[in-house]
Structures are given as C-alpha cells and as structure tokens.
Amino acid sequence: MEVDSQEQLQRKQSTYLSLDENFEIQKEVYRGQQYSQIYFARLHMMRTLLYSLVPNWKSHLPVCTVLELKEGKECIIFGTLYKHMKLKPCILDEYSKERSVAPLIKPHNFMHQDDYLVLEDESGRVKLGGTKLSPSVYVTGVVVALHGKETSAGAFFVEDVLEAGLPPQIKRPLKSREDKYVVFVSGLSIGRSSSNPLQFQLLVDHITGHLGDEEEQGLAAEIVHLVIVGNSVEISRGLLNGQNLASKDQSRLCEPFKELDILLTQIAASLPLDIMPGSSDPANFALPQQPLNRCLFPGSTTYNTFRSCTNPHCFELDSIRFLGTSGQNIDDLTKYSEAKDKLDFLERTLRWRHLAPTAPNTLGCYPFTDRDPFLIDSCPDVYFVGNQEKYETCLLKGLEGQLVRLICIPRFCETGVAVVLNMRNLECHALTFGTQISS
C-alpha cells in the first residue's frame, strides 16, 4: 500500500517551450533613435494585414491615403489612431509655476467629453467624426481601417470600422486527458510593511505538497508549473532615494530578495517556475522588461527548474500557448480609455492584435527601429495579466473558432489569492490563502 501511495503522489510533468525571443533585447543598441520608427513598423505590418481583410469587408470601395481624400467620396483609409486628450498629463506641467487650487484631473483616468480621434498615415492626418468610433474605447497607437467620406469641414465621417480581430490560433489537440494544473500568482510585494510572511509560506507549502491531507497532497502533485507574474518585491522609496546608503540600509535593501529567494528555492526544488519582472521589481522600466538578474536568486538558480523570464512572457506547456504581462499595459489602458471591466481591456488588445498599443505614447518602451515586438501574430490559448484589483476570468470565442481563456490575476499581498488553471479543459479557479483565526 505504501508503494501505491507514493506512486500516486509522484508529481506530474509537462513539456515546456519558451517563446520569449521576440521580447529579448540583444543586438539592439540605443543611440538616441526616435520612436517614429516603431510606429512605422506597426503601421506597415498592420496595414498589410488589414488590406488582406478588405475584400471580405468592403470590396467595392476604393482605398485612399489621407492626402487623396475628396469631399463626399466614399473610400477606405488605413492608419494609426491618435487621441487628442484635454486632460492628458504633460511633463511641462511639472515645471509650471502656477498651480490650480483644485485638481483638474482624476488620478485614475484622464478621459474627457471633448476628446477626439485623428487618423494618421505617411501622407498626413485627418480628424475623425461620426459615432462609429468612440473616443472612450480607442487609444493612441491602434491601427484600423475606416470606411467613410470627407466632409466639407475637412474631417472624415466614419461609417464603419475594421479591426484586425483575433489572430489565427493553432489548432492543437490536448496532449492528454488527465488533469494538470498551472498556478499563477502576482504582486507578492515582499518587503512591504503590510505583507504577511505566513501567507507566503502557506502558498509555498500548498504548491509543494507539504500542506493538507492525502487528497490535498494528491491535488498538489498535479501542479506542473508556477508562474510568478511581476511585482515580487517592494523596496521603500526612502531607501532608493538615498544618495549614500548606510550599511544598515543596504541590509534592509537586500532582505526582500533574500526572503523571496528562500521561498522560490523551496518551490524550484519541487516543480518548474517562471518569474517575470514587474513595475516594482529591479528591472528596466521600459517594456519589454528583461529577465531579473539571476544573481538575485543564489539559491533558486541552483535548480534547472528556475527560469527568469521577460515581461511580456510567452511560452508553451504541452503545446498549450500562454501569453501574459505583469499588468502595465492594461493599467495604462485604464488611464486613457474606459471599459466595463478589465477583461474587456484584455479582449481589446487581442482584437487590435497588439499587447501594448499605448506604447510608446504613454507607456515606456524600448525604441525598436525595425520591428514592433508587441504585435500578436498567433492567438494564445491562455492570456493572463497580473497585479489587478481582483480575480476575473472568462472564455473568449473568436469568429474563426479561436478559444482563449482570459485571466486577471489579483495582487497576492492584498488579496491572498492565487489562480489555478486546469490545462485539460482551460477551466480555472481562485485559491485563497488566509491566516486569520476565526473566533
């Protein structure tokens, strides 16, 4: 009986393939290049794609550039949207001597009823009118095709909009019909004064199978992968702003990393894990963020199950494709557009086939000269985003049979919630870790 029990508790395995090459900065060198080139690359790639969709959309209409528009003549134009925003923050305001008594903007969103959209191509730009294209939905950087005509006022009245839509999805038969689980956790924020070390240890013990009865340990043995989705540590701004750190402060600076490494070493000894950088982690600010330096994890890196990855991060497990970010792209969209929930923002980025359309306008990114790494050319099976306020999920179905599991992963430090996905059927649920004793 003992042998049978041990066989049952043998951890399941899965095949792993990293697809992060597109997000890795290797030969690129920053020499003061401008950001216009990344917009040109985006427009060129997306226009080619949209042009191929026109015959099934409005094949009877001519295609024009902005410069070729004629008043009253119906046509199709391609270009990049730019949103004029009355409340958009300006860096020059930081140095303005005059300060308003009442704040002019809401801290969470810069939308205003006077915002309007402009379409731009290589030949020029034109203001957009009509009700088909809502400024509250779109942001600067999205490439679309528009059907309409120029008005006497010189604007382009939009009658219909063509987006790229969900990219094609590789049809993959699920490798096995057995349950295999992937756990997602984000916003550990180790080092924050309000963080709870016991909560972190409960998470680790559950994943590694050192918690609960035989049934619970059996479920833990079906976890084949852990993805840590950004913001793993939080360092006091007072320490970071110090010019000359005292030895005591230096010790405090290192403590969150030591604690994180201890936790990750326990996990890496049991199963494979990926760790992505986030906005609060010691990585480059601009997207794509490069892997966290392995010297931060002297214990974890001794295991080949430990992988430090990019943000965004793309990989395959048993031929199921995962794509996700640590949240910066979605958080930026919430500042400059509106939606009913965060899942709606995730869906939009897939329909626009672009992970971070607001980069580089309002979201920092590397000034690529010959490509835009954030274009989505293949539809993932699972699309996740970390460091959100709450857990949300839905199954998105595309017009060509695409099926995508969308997941918003909440900040663990604040919610105690991790997300578990079953690779057999793409169903997922929240896993809550609490340390309060009920009276």
Folded structure, characterized:
Heterodimer with subunits of 125 kDa and 50 kDa. Its EC number is 2.7.7.7. Helices cover 22% and strands 24% of the residues. It is built from ten helices and 18 strands. The strands form three sheets. The protein has a six-stranded mixed sheet. A six-stranded mixed sheet has the order 11-10-9-8-17-18. It has a five-stranded mixed beta barrel with strand order 3-4-5-7-6. The protein is elongated, with a radius of gyration of 24 Å. The N terminus is likely disordered.
Would you kindly provide a brief summary of this structure?
By secondary structure, the protein is of the alpha/beta class.
What is the CATH topology assignment of the largest domain? Purple Acid Phosphatase, chain A, domain 2
Please tell me the CATH architecture of the largest domain by its name: 4-Layer Sandwich
**Terminal-residue CA separation:** 39 Å
Q: State the helical fraction.
A: 10-25%
CATH C-level name of the largest domain = Alpha Beta
Number of domains: 2
Shape: elongated
Count of strand segments: 18
Q: Largest sheet, described in full?
A: 6 strands, mixed
Sketch the topology as an H/E string, one letter per element.
HEHHEEEEEEEHHEHHEEEEHHEEEHEE
Mean pLDDT figure: 88
Estimated share of beta-strand residues: 15-25%
Unreliable residue runs: 1-6
Query: Helix segment count?
Result: 10
List keywords for this structure.
DNA_pol_D_N; six-stranded mixed sheet; DNA-directed DNA polymerase activity; nucleotidyltransferase; 22% helix; 24% strand; Purple Acid Phosphatase, chain A, domain 2; disordered N terminus; elongated; alpha/beta; OB fold (Dihydrolipoamide Acetyltransferase, E2P)
